[in-house]
């Protein structure tokens, strides 16, 4: 079972999302994707197959979670831990996992996918012999996954927004907040909380929200628990603050 908490599991989350996208595409009739009036008509499964019929998003999400756990655990360690920095530092790794993937690499990966996963893919019509097999199913998943996890880090100064990322006010000056405070960078690397390329990630905040963030948690807590804007904005106290401060407008002088 793959643990799913903490920044070190970014790769699993990315793999699961890529897998979910492929499942959604394959579970949605062509007519529905094209907006046809026949979108409600589904090809009936054979007697040996189950099929998603007008699947609920939660059902697909649960199914994707199950498949992702089984497939990801079977992947080579180097693929599970693939990053932009890893392929920059290791030409052998870069050559092997560069896109498009070679047939031998795909065969290596699919050889270790658990049998129960293969059975589930067949049972739900995601793999239909002779038209498709596990390899053809997993290829777009792996390609999307590799593209995500090997994307080079952004130049953070180029991420500047036009409005505060907490209160959305666009008429006040913005400052940049180091999401992983500089004072704890050494501890972050020593403890392995984040990869080095993420140390200088920033959020663009007005001065009032910037000060609020530093009052709400210590630098170590910010680095460990509140290292993205989404995480910060998930807090109830931040939401209440944002609602209040967004109504504040400076009087004209």
UniProtKB/TrEMBL annotation:
Region (Disordered): 30-56
UniProt feature, compositional bias: Basic residues: 35-45
Protein name: HNH domain-containing protein
Naturally occurring in which organism (per UniProt): Capronia coronata CBS 617.96
